[in-house]
Write a structure and sequence with these properties.
With 299 residues, the protein is α/β, with parallel strands linked by helices. Helix content is 28%, strand content 23%. The protein contains seven helices and twelve strands.
Length: 299
């Protein structure tokens, strides 16, 4: 199956009117380039509490709902699927969910993924979710994850068990104060920077984790991040054999078009043993019964 994915790069901030304008613009760009789906960053429409603004106190929820409806209507008009990062309000006094809305090509909300693993900072503003989201798009089985969940390979393995071929992973790794960026760079250590691709922890760890997830699960991954300065890395796309096929320019908003081809002959060296490893059979080949194998403290 082939699927055209638009991985979007939006400078997310507290101004939801501005966020909406970017989303609608990039949806039109994605459609003009023949994309089947547009994938937006974490909290793309609402902004991200704790980074883009202090808290949800006094937040304009009716405006957010109205702007979300505008996006639903344009998705239906364009015939474009949309993965929209935003915030889903809960009944007070519960904190909202950090969510990705799954909108189909008819402009209908067909599911919602809520970030399950929230960081300690997130938990000051958000309630964690409790479910995976799996859906089919033009015959390609898809799943959704959000930012900090890159650090939990169990989530990728869960999707692999459910037959997912493409993961939409939405990030908000950016818009941090310069002092925070400098602190993240100090944590790496200037003498280690030449040995790594990047100068800060998110810049090094997150793309590397996406490549590891792709190769250990043989899944394609769309990685959409905020373009707001300082953006730790631009939006990029990973093939199922861990190859990054394209990326945008850092801090420059844009749309990245990638083709998922699940019939492509990609290297998959673990194919023969992957299913049995997931069943708990943690070796390849056939075990032997041999005394010299059993005696582990003798030469």
């Amino acid at each position: 199956m082939k699927l055209s994915v638009a991985t979007c790069y939006v400078p997310v901030d507290a101004d939801i009117r501005r966020n909406r304008r970017y989303v609608l613009q990039q949806m039109r760009t994605a459609h003009a380039h023949g994309a089947d789906v547009a994938h937006f960053p974490e909290a793309c429409l609402s902004g991200y509490a704790g980074t883009d603004f202090p808290s949800y106190r006094g937040f304009d929820w009716p405006r957010l709902a109205a702007y979300t409806q505008d996006i639903l209507e344009l998705a239906g008009h364009l015939g474009l699927w949309v993965l929209l990062g935003s915030t889903h309000r809960l009944t007070p006094p519960h904190k909202p969910h950090d969510s990705v809305y799954v909108i189909n090509a008819r402009g209908r909300l067909v599911d919602r993924y809520d970030k399950r693993f929230c960081s300690t900072e997130d938990l000051a503003h958000y309630s964690p979710g409790n479910h995976a989201v799996v859906f089919s798009l033009k015959g390609v089985r898809c799943g959704v994850l959000i930012c900090y969940e890159y650090a939990f390979p169990e989530l990728y393995r869960e999707y692999k068990r459910r037959g997912v071929q493409l993961v939409f992973h939405a990030f908000h790794a950016g818009h941090a104060p310069r002092r925070r960026v400098k602190d993240m760079e100090r944590q790496v250590g200037a003498h280690f920077v030449p040995l790594n691709r990047g100068a800060s922890l998110p810049e090094i760890r997150m793309p590397a984790a996406m490549q590891a997830a792709a190769t250990s699960n043989h899944v394609w991954i769309s990685c959409s991040n905020t373009a707001a300065r300082h953006s730790c890395f631009p939006s990029f796309f990973v093939r199922a054999d861990r190859i990054i096929t394209s990326r945008l320019r850092r801090n420059v908003p844009g749309v990245l078009i990638s083709i998922v081809d699940t019939t492509a002959r990609l290297y998959y060296g673990t194919l023969r043993w992957r299913d049995r490893a997931m069943r708990g059979v943690l070796h390849s080949g056939t075990l032997v019964r041999d005394q010299r194998s059993a005696e582990r403290t003798r030469l």
